[in-house]
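Regression test case RT-17, inverse folding.

Input:
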C-alpha cells in the first residue's frame, strides 16, 4: 500500500514536470495560462453559476490538455523523424487542428456565458 502511494505521488510529479515543461517551452501555453487565470478572476467577479463554472473549467482544461498533447506529438515527430516528410507534416497539422477545434469551442462557450452578462 505504501509503495502504491509512493508510485502515485511519483507519477503525479512526472505529470507536473510535463506541465512545467509545456509552460517553459511553448509560448502558446503561457498565453493560454494567462487567459485561464484572467477568465477565472472574471468568473468570480460576475459570480458564475455552478453550471457556468463547470463549462468554463472544462473549456480551459480541454484547451491546455490538447496543447500538451499537440506538443507531445510534435516532439515525438521531431525525435522519430527530424527530417522533412509529408506524413510528419500531416501528423503535426492534425494535432494542431485538434488544438484549434478546442480553442474555437472555448471561444463559443465564453461567448455564450459572458455576452449576455455584458451586453
Ligand atoms: N518534419 C516535417 N516534415 C514536414 N512538414 C513539417 C515538418 N515539421 C513541421 N512541418 C510543417 O510545419 C508546421 C509547423 O510545424 P512546427 O513543428 O514548427 O510546429 P509549430 O506550428 O511551430 O508548433 P507550435 O507553434 O505549437 O510550437 C506543421 O504543422 C507541418 O505542417
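Golden output:
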Amino acid at each position: 500500500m505504501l509503495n502504491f502511494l509512493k508510485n502515485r505521488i511519483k507519477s503525479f510529479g512526472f505529470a507536473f514536470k510535463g506541465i512545467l515543461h509545456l509552460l517553459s517551452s511553448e509560448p502558446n501555453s503561457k498565453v493560454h495560462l494567462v487567459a485561464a487565470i484572467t477568465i477565472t478572476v472574471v468568473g468570480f467577479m460576475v459570480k458564475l453559476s455552478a453550471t457556468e463554472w463547470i463549462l468554463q473549467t472544462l473549456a480551459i482544461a480541454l484547451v491546455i490538455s490538447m496543447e500538451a498533447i499537440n506538443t507531445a506529438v510534435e516532439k515525438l515527430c521531431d525525435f522519430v523523424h527530424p527530417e522533412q516528410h509529408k506524413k510528419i507534416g500531416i501528423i503535426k497539422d492534425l494535432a494542431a487542428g485538434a488544438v484549434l477545434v478546442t480553442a474555437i469551442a472555448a471561444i463559443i462557450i465564453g461567448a455564450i456565458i459572458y455576452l449576455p452578462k455584458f451586453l
